[in-house]
Amino acid sequence: MRTTLWIQTAFLFAVGIFITFSQVHNAIIGNLGLMFVALGFATAATIEVLKTKGIGKSNGGSSLQVIVFGAIATAAIVFAAGNDIVSFLILVITFAVFNGLLELKKVSIQKESKLSAFIHFGLVAVLGISGALTGLDPVASTGFFGAYAVILAVHLGITAASPKA
User: Fold this and answer.
1) How far apart are CA 64 and CA 49, in angstroms?
2) Neighbouring C-beta atoms of residue 83, cutoff 10 Å
3) pLDDT of 59-85, one tens digit each?
4) Can you tell me the distance from the alpha carbon of 85 to that of 27, in angstroms, rounded to the nearest whole number?
5) Alpha-carbon distance 152 to 63, whole Å?
6) In total, how many domains does the chain have?
7) Which of 15, 50, 119, 131 has the most CB atoms at less than 10 Å from its CB?
8) 64-to-8, 26, 37 alpha-carbon distances in Å
9) What is the pLDDT of residues 108-151, one digit of tens each?
10) Phi and psi (nearest 5°) for 135?
């Protein structure tokens, strides 16, 4: 679990810094950031699946995660060429909803990490809501996604560094 958290943290932090220091905040930058985050989450899920394959139980890492995060990354790559803010918002909201559902699933599996999962789910909910409220403003949408990436990276980094991880 700790390894997957560190992988997710690294990808999220890199994307947050990339978006923060990018001079242009448009759908291309947002889709590239989302692609990188989705690839990070897919990589972490793949490692979790490979680690737990022989054990028979998984702490949230599953083949479904690998498939969905891989599909989101692929769609982000395809949509990045078009600079379409609507496709970026759809992908961000899809990512947020799927990630939030995974956090709810983790709460039922790991009773000791309820607070961490609640915070993560709250951040995911805020991302989904901000994506819906910003409308078609690419600067705000990309900026909110960058802020989400940095805040979630800090949260997951603290969680990964804690003794209970």
Assistant:
1) 10
2) 15
3) 555 777 888 888 888 888 887 777 778
4) 5
5) 23
6) 1
7) 15
8) 17, 30, 17
9) 666 656 777 777 777 777 877 776 777 778 888 888 889 889 98
10) 70, -135
Asked whether the beta carbons of 159 and 59 are under 8 A apart, the reply is no
Tokens of residue 67, six digits = 């498939």
Q: In angstroms, rounded to a whole number, what is the distance separating the alpha carbons of residues 105 and 45?
A: 14
Q: Can you spell out the DSSP letters for the chain?
A: -HHHHHHHHHHHHHHHHHHHT-S--SHHHHHHHHHHHHHHHHHHHHHHHHHHTTTS--SS--HHHHHHHHHHHHHHHHHHTTT-HHHHHHHHHHHHHHHHHHHHHHHHH-GGGHHHHHHHHHHHHHHHHHHHHSTT-HHHHHHHHHHHHHHHHHHHHHHHHSTT-
Q: Which domain holds residue 12?
A: 2-161
> What is the token pair recorded at 44?
């972490």
Question: Which tokens hold the place of 120?
Answer: 């993560």
